[in-house]
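QUALITY CONTROL LOG
STEP: pairwise intake check
CHECKER ROLE: data steward
CRITERIA: each record must contain a sequence immediately followed by its structure tokens, with no blank fields

ENTRY 1 OF 2
RESULT FIELD BELOW
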Amino acid sequence: MYANNSKDIQALITNYFQGIYKGKIKELEKVFHPRALLFGDINGVPYFKSLADYIKGVKNRKSPHELGEEFKMKILSVEINGDMAIAKLHVPMLGFNYYDFISLAKVDGNWKIVNKLFTHVV
């Protein structure tokens, strides 16, 4: 069971990375739970958004792929306990050195991101 969960979570995170890197809105909508919340800071400014607001922001910006940025996103760690998991990700893009902590839950048999915390590390 753990091996399948690990593979499923890795696939979900890969889709998340591709969604933000290429600006694939449909991909992002598939990996997040519709009621997910996103918290963080951008250059020291607090950031708090619903999934709908986050998707709108991704849709209205040029993607890292469109800007010719090299793909450097990677999974740093994943911890799974039953139908819950947490992942630490390195997400350098758009001139930022982001680290994401995402919380995942198995909802109706599918893993979904239910919360995202992120910060830019200098």
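ENTRY 2 OF 2
RESULT FIELD BELOW
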Amino acid sequence: MQTITDFMASDHRSCDELLVTVEHAVADRRWGPARAAFTLFRAGMLHHFSAEEAILFPLFEQSTGIFRGPTQVMRAEHAQMRQLLAAAEAAVAAQDADDYSGNAETLLIMMQQHNVKEENVLYPMCDQHLAAQVATLLPELQQELTSGRELAR
């Protein structure tokens, strides 16, 4: 059976791939494809955050009684990344490659640091504490992640 760590890390990679697509389109000044790719990337990121904040984190907190720990840090980082997503989206809309690049670089660094913490600390804790619920939890997470990508298309 797939673990929470494997499942959520795979979604991290999917978001990373979408960001690379945006980066290439912006670098080539192909603004239509850049906007389309950014829409998919943004939706993927926001639904990833939603899957964690609405489903995974509350279940972890309920199971462990830990409310002021790693999930609180992850929520704060999600808020920062939402701001960077909005700034990058505005730069793509304005066809401002320099502004986009600055925001995207900051976002990428933050995503990398954030993903390491989740994949090496929080998700393994979830695997340990939510093992009995994984059979029902993963389809619920999948539904949230999939709905975001379908809506963006």
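INTAKE CHECK: passed for both entries
DESCRIPTIVE NOTE, ENTRY 2: The mean pLDDT is 94.
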